[in-house]
Amino acid sequence: MLTSKQRAVLRSMANRIVPIIHVGKNGVNPMLLRQTEDALKARELIKGTVQQNAKREAAEVARELAEATGSEVVQVIGRKFVLFRSNPDEPKIEL
Questions:
Q1: Global pTM?
Q2: pLDDT in tens for each of the 95 residues of the chain?
Q3: CB-CB neighbours of 62 under 10 Å
Q4: Which residues, other chains included, contact 50 with Cβ-Cβ below 8 Å and sequence gap of 6+?
């Protein structure tokens, strides 16, 4: 569980990254889960976007992805969301 200070640090870091997860009309599917899992393992902090043609809200998608990958939702703004999961083998972000 992230503290409010840790969440604030991660939010400021997320401002500089581009979305790499794109959720479209197919929603959360096994391929998207695998892609999210790989991205979290490699980067720890990732940003995603829910496309206009998706039938779901960004907060709902972010929660589902976080549950499925064991990550935490850092922030949801509009159609964008930020997820974080520390990599115990190779930590890249110190909190």
A1: 0.94
A2: 899 999 999 999 999 999 999 999 999 999 999 999 999 999 999 999 999 999 899 999 999 999 999 999 999 999 999 999 998 888 888 88
A3: 24
A4: 23, 56, 57, 58, 61, 79, 80, 81
User: Any idea which residue has 């779901």 for tokens?
Assistant: 56
Q: Answer left, alpha or beta for residue 27, where phi above 0 means left and psi between -120 and 50 means alpha.
A: left
Number of residues assigned to the chain: 95
Question: For the stretch 4-31, what's the b/e string if a residue is b when 16 or more beta carbons lie within 10 angstroms of its beta carbon?
Answer: eeebebbeeebeeeebebebeeeebeee
Listed by start position, the domains of the chain span: 4-84
Bridge-based pairing state of the strands 72-77 and 45-50: unpaired
What is the CATH code for 4-84?
3.30.110.60
Q: What pLDDT, on the 0 to 100 scale, is given for residue 82?
A: 98
